[in-house]
């Protein structure tokens, strides 16, 4: 009982301490840099409440979430088949291993100029960057899932004279879904981190764009509000991904 | 239904090798309806491979297997398989696990109501009535193996292939499961090929014991077990047979060879 209350109180206490530090920091900074007062928590909170009442902010949020969804869809569409192939074929795994490791370690944002040159300005290069950043955890987790499939499940399917479709749909895909969902959760985290900088280049909507816009309008309280909002939405996305994973795992 | 064949399963001149390494050769055996046959042999002597070949899961290099007088090319719909691990599908409930595969395309078509009834009956027979909606992760090892047994029974098999199904269980649970196996296969009128390396298990469960050994493996000896059940009540006869099997085993030890399996 006491421990459950503590589990609730501790995170709240941590957050409260952070807000207090934030408040103190802006107050101290304001002595030398007067503009810092605009970044204080109370103003940010007031700005956030105001913004949430405006349709415009919700449009930016919708645009960003749509980009997350499209980027994730591409990442899953590429990552799962490639992961299955990697898990099933040692030949493919060996041939692609170093290449994948190399590509994985190139910051996705490095591709931005090339992406814009090839795909033009607009949503397409953002989708590309998000998908490119997010495909790796999905690919690697899918491959690990295939490698960890219980051989007896496949033997069982064969003993039932399962068709190829039945084997894939009833054994292999559900058998690796937990791994895919782990990959998806990691992918969502990466996408959300890449999204804001990706939206600062050549687009005119989305949360990343909105942050630059507040800066240009010298609306610093709104800037801080946007930062807080990005954090909150990311938290919720991660929560949703975790919930999905748990839902699939049931009692496991 | 076919005219009743004398043998449910028959194999002649069966041979198998992995690459250049022979596993078994010249294996001939027959299993009658409702008969429990134990295939006994040391680890690595090729029992599992032979079982898979008899079940139609591996094609032998030589010889042939017939099921109800028909040559077997792929697993027969009236045969079922259980392994050392229960290998339940963790994303399905106990009930869905027991029903797994009944609706596959190459399985005999049965109405959904019949399917539910069969699954209910099988789960009740293995003592899991009321646990239908449990998840595999909530089960003990013995309970999971019961579900695996129910999954096989739900298919109303003529022949159950069991590859060391109880060797991962503790001694008490194993004894329980051995008795349960005998009880349900009698009730289902099924025959069993039980692969085991446990002499006592073979004696307690089987109507007939086949001893496998040698390199490549062959069937070396055979015993008919006519000790009345429950066999725990006849320790003298059980001990006598165990000694008999042990001495046969000692005679068949092959010279250690240089190759490392
Ligand atoms: N997939 C495989 N590839 C090559 N050799 C194998 C394979 N599976 C089993 N073997 C070998 O075949 C022999 C028989 O194996 P197995 O049938 O599993 O024996 P048992 O079930 O009696 O322990 C062993 O020597 C084993 O190393
Ligand atoms: Mg074996």
UniProtKB/TrEMBL annotation, chain A:
Family: Belongs to the binding-protein-dependent transport system permease family.
Domain (ABC transmembrane type-1): residue spans on this chain: 61-241
Subcellular compartments: Cell membrane
This protein's name: ABC transporter permease
UniProt-listed SUPFAM superfamilies: MetI-like
Ranges that cross the membrane: 39-58, 70-93, 99-119, 126-147, 191-212, 218-244
Membrane-topology annotation of the record: Multi-pass membrane protein
Keywords on record: Cell membrane, Membrane, Transmembrane, Transmembrane helix, Transport
A cellular component term, taken from the record's GO annotations: plasma membrane
Signal peptide: none
Any one GO biological process: alkanesulfonate transmembrane transport
Source domain of life: Bacteria
One Pfam family, short name: BPD_transp_1
Major place of residence: membrane
Automatic annotation (TrEMBL), chain B:
UniProt-listed Pfam families: ABC_tran
Keyword line: ATP-binding, Cell membrane, Membrane, Nucleotide-binding, Transport
Keyword Transport: yes
Keyword Zinc-finger: no
InterPro entries membership: AAA+_ATPase, ABC_transporter-like_ATP-bd, ABC_transporter-like_CS, ABC_transporter_ATP-bind, P-loop_NTPase
Gene Ontology molecular functions: ATP binding; ATP hydrolysis activity
ABC transporter domain ranges (all copies): 9-239
Similarity annotation: Belongs to the ABC transporter superfamily.
The protein, known as: ABC transporter ATP-binding protein
Organism whose genome encodes this protein: Pseudothauera rhizosphaerae
Lineage of producing organism: Bacteria, Pseudomonadati, Pseudomonadota, Betaproteobacteria, Rhodocyclales
């Amino acid at each position: 009982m006491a421990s459950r209350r503590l589990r609730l109180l501790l995170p709240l206490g941590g957050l409260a301490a952070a807000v207090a530090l934030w408040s103190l920091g802006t107050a101290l900074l304001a002595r030398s840099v007067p503009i810092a007062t605009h970044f204080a928590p109370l103003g940010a909170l007031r700005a956030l409440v105001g913004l949430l009442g405006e349709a415009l902010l919700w449009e930016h949020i919708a645009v960003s979430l749509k980009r997350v969804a499209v980027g994730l869809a591409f990442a899953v569409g590429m990552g799962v088949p490639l992961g299955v192939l990697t898990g099933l074929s040692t030949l493919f795994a060996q041939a692609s291993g170093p290449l994948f490791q190399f590509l994985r370690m190139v910051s996705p944002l490095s591709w931005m100029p090339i992406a814009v040159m090839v795909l033009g300005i607009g949503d397409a290069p953002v989708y590309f960057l998000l998908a490119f950043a997010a495909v790796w955890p999905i690919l690697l987790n899918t491959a690990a899932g295939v490698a960890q499939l219980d051989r007896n499940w496949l033997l069982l399917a064969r003993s039932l004279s399962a068709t190829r479709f039945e084997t894939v749909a009833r054994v292999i895909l559900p058998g690796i879904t937990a791994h895919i969902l782990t990959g998806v959760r990691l992918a969502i985290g990466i996408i959300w981190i890449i999204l804001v900088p990706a939206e600062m280049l050549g687009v005119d909507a989305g949360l990343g764009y909105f942050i630059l816009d507040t800066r240009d309008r010298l609306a610093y309280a709104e800037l801080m509000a946007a930062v807080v909002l990005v954090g909150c939405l990311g938290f919720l996305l991660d929560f949703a991904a975790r919930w999905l994973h748990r839902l699939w795992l049931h009692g496991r | 239904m076919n005219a009743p064949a004398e043998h449910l399963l028959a194999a002649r001149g069966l041979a198998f090798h992995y690459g250049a390494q022979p596993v078994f050769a010249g294996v001939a055996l027959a299993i009658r309806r409702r008969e429990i046959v134990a295939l006994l042999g040391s680890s690595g002597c090729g029992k599992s491979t032979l079982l898979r070949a008899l079940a139609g899961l591996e094609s032998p290099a030589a010889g042939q297997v017939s099921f109800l007088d028909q040559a077997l090319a792929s697993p027969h719909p009236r045969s079922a398989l259980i392994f050392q691990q229960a290998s339940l599908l963790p994303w399905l409930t106990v009930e869905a696990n027991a029903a797994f595969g009944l609706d596959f395309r190459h399985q005999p078509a049965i109405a959904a109501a019949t399917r539910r009834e069969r699954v209910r009956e099988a789960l009740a027979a293995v003592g899991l009535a009321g646990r239908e909606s449990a998840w595999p992760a909530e089960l003990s090892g013995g309970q999971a193996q019961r579900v695996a047994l129910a999954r096989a029974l739900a298919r109303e098999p003529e022949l159950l292939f069991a590859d060391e199904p109880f060797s991962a269980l503790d001694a008490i649970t194993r004894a329980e499961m051995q008795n349960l196996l005998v009880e349900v296969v009698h009730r289902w009128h099924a025959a069993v090929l039980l692969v085991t390396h446990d002499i006592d298990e073979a004696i307690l469960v089987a109507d007939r014991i086949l001893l496998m050994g040698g390199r490549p493996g062959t069937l070396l000896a055979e015993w008919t077990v006519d000790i009345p059940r429950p066999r725990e009540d006849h320790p003298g006869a059980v001990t006598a047979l165990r000694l008999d099997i042990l001495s046969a085993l000692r005679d068949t030890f092959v010279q250690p060879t240089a190759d490392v399996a």
